[in-house]
Specification:
The protein is an all-alpha fold and 102 residues long. The protein contains four helices and no strands.
């Protein structure tokens, strides 16, 4: 008789850490998106983000559209492409955004 033992795949500490960092990043982007307003306070930035995320133009954002938008933002932040965003990369991203607004 042969016994089969099934061992579940365990996530590495790095995968768990990356998942937490990604979730914190996504929540931060959401918070920024919801509170971003133009100088007159009309929420222009919010509308622009919504339109960018709503890629099929149906007036709704699907989970896939949401994830694709934020994945591209993560990739934008992760300048060296190592799958992690460092404090330095975040600072550089913010600096570039400020300079772009001028």
């Amino acid at each position: 008789m042969i016994e089969v033992i099934v061992i579940p795949k365990l996530h590495s500490a790095n995968e768990d850490k990356m998942n937490k960092i990604s979730m914190i990043f996504l929540i931060s982007i959401l918070a920024i998106s919801l509170h971003a307003h133009d100088k007159k306070g009309h929420g222009k930035m919010h509308q622009e983000h919504f339109q960018k995320m709503d890629t099929n133009g149906d007036g709704k954002i699907s989970k896939e559209e949401w994830q694709a938008f934020h994945e591209s933002k993560f990739s934008e932040l992760d300048k060296d492409g190592d799958g992690f965003v460092t404090k330095e990369e975040m600072k550089e991203f913010r600096k570039e955004k400020k300079e772009h607004k001028k």
